[in-house]
Design brief:
The protein is mainly beta and 270 residues long. Helices cover 7% and strands 39% of the residues. The chain is built from one helix and 21 strands. The protein has one helix at residues 2-19, and strands at residues 30-36, 46-53, 58-67, 73-76, 78-79, 84-89, 97-106, 111-113, 117-120, 131-137, 142-147, 153-154, 159-162, 177-178, 183-188, 200-201, 211-216, 222-228, 239-242, 248-251, 265-266. The strands form five sheets. It has a seven-stranded mixed sheet, with no helix packed on it. Strands 3, 4, 7, 8 and 9 form a five-stranded antiparallel sheet that branches. The chain has a four-stranded antiparallel sheet with strand order 1-2-6-5, with no helix packed on it. Strand 5 (78-79) and strand 6 (84-89) form a beta hairpin.
C-alpha cells in the first residue's frame, strides 16, 4: 500500500513540475518576399516590401540601405497588409547603386536580418507606350504631350526635334513622370514664358506652313512624329490636334492641358 502511495505521490509531483515549465517559443523573426518598386529615374522614391512573421511579436522593423557603398542609412518600416511591412528609400541620383536589407527586432529582443538586395537608378528601360504629341498651336506657341497609356512615363530622356533637323534638339525633356491620363504643355521661347526651363522648347512654331515635330526616346527610337503637309500655306486660327479617333485635325478650340475638342477638318500628313 505504501509503495502504491509513493508512486502516486511521485506522479503528482512530476505533474506539478511539468505544469510550471512553459514551452520555449522561437524568439526570432522570419523575413521573406523582399521586393522593391522600380527607380526609373532620379525623381522616384523606392518602396521596399518584406513579409515578416514572428511567434513572439515584432518590436521593430528597419530598412537599412547605402548609396554607392557609402554610409548605412536607416528608415523605419511600417506594417501593411497580410504580414507585409514597407519602408521608403528616398529618390537618388540617376545611375546610383543602392543596396538594402531589412533588420527585425522581436519582442524577445532578438535580431534577424534579410538577405541583401540592390537596384540601380534609371537602369530599367522606359516604356514610352502611350506617349503622344496631342496638340500643337502656332498662334499661342505651345506643344502638348499626352500620356494615354496605363503607367507613368519618365520624360527626362525624351528629346524633341523640329523640321527634320535631328542634329539639334529643340527640347531636352523634363525630369518628371507624366502620369496616365495627364498632359504636359511646352511653350516656345519666342514668348519668353515665365515657367520652369524644362517646359520651354527652343524654337518657334508656325500656324500656317508645313511643320514637322518629332519626339524621340532615350533609346533613340521615334516615339511620335507630326509631319504636316500644308501646301496651300493657309493660316489656321486654332490648333492642330488629335481627335478622339487618334487622327490629326484642325481644331478651332484650343485646349492646352485638357482634353481636345474634336475638329471637322482632317489634316494632310506626310
Amino acid at each position: 500500500m505504501k509503495k502504491i502511495l509513493s508512486i502516486a505521490l511521485l506522479a503528482v509531483l512530476a505533474l506539478s513540475f511539468n505544469s510550471c515549465v512553459k514551452d520555449e517559443m522561437y524568439p526570432y523573426a522570419t523575413v521573406s518576399d523582399l521586393t522593391h518598386t522600380i527607380a526609373y529615374s532620379e525623381v522616384d522614391n523606392v518602396t521596399v516590401s518584406a513579409k515578416i512573421s514572428a511567434l513572439v511579436g515584432i518590436q521593430s522593423a528597419t530598412l537599412i540601405y547605402n548609396v554607392n557603398g557609402g554610409a548605412a542609412q536607416e528608415v523605419a518600416m511600417k506594417a501593411a497588409n497580410n504580414g507585409m511591412w514597407e519602408g521608403v528609400i528616398p529618390a537618388q541620383a540617376k545611375g546610383a547603386k543602392v543596396e538594402y536589407l531589412v533588420k527585425v527586432i522581436t519582442d524577445s529582443n532578438k535580431e534577424s536580418t534579410s538577405a541583401t538586395n540592390s537596384y540601380e537608378v534609371g537602369k530599367v528601360p522606359v516604356d514610352y507606350t502611350g506617349l503622344v504629341l496631342n496638340e500643337l498651336n502656332g498662334n499661342d506657341k505651345f506643344i502638348e504631350l499626352y500620356n494615354g497609356g496605363n503607367h507613368a512615363i519618365y520624360l527626362g530622356d525624351v528629346k524633341m526635334y523640329k523640321d527634320s533637323n535631328f542634329d539639334a534638339s529643340t527640347w531636352d525633356g523634363a525630369p518628371i513622370n507624366l502620369e496616365p491620363g495627364k498632359y504636359l504643355v511646352l511653350q516656345s521661347e519666342d514668348l519668353s514664358p515665365e515657367c520652369e526651363p524644362y517646359l520651354i522648347f527652343h524654337s518657334g512654331l508656325s500656324a500656317k506652313k508645313s511643320v514637322r515635330i518629332t519626339i524621340v526616346g532615350g533609346d533613340g527610337k521615334t516615339i511620335d512624329d507630326f509631319n504636316l503637309n500644308n501646301d496651300a500655306g493657309t493660316k489656321y486660327a486654332g490648333s492642330f490636334g488629335r481627335n478622339a479617333d487618334g487622327k490629326w485635325y484642325h481644331q478651332t478650340t484650343k485646349t492646352p492641358g485638357a482634353a481636345n475638342v474634336d475638329g471637322d477638318e482632317p489634316l494632310t500628313m506626310k
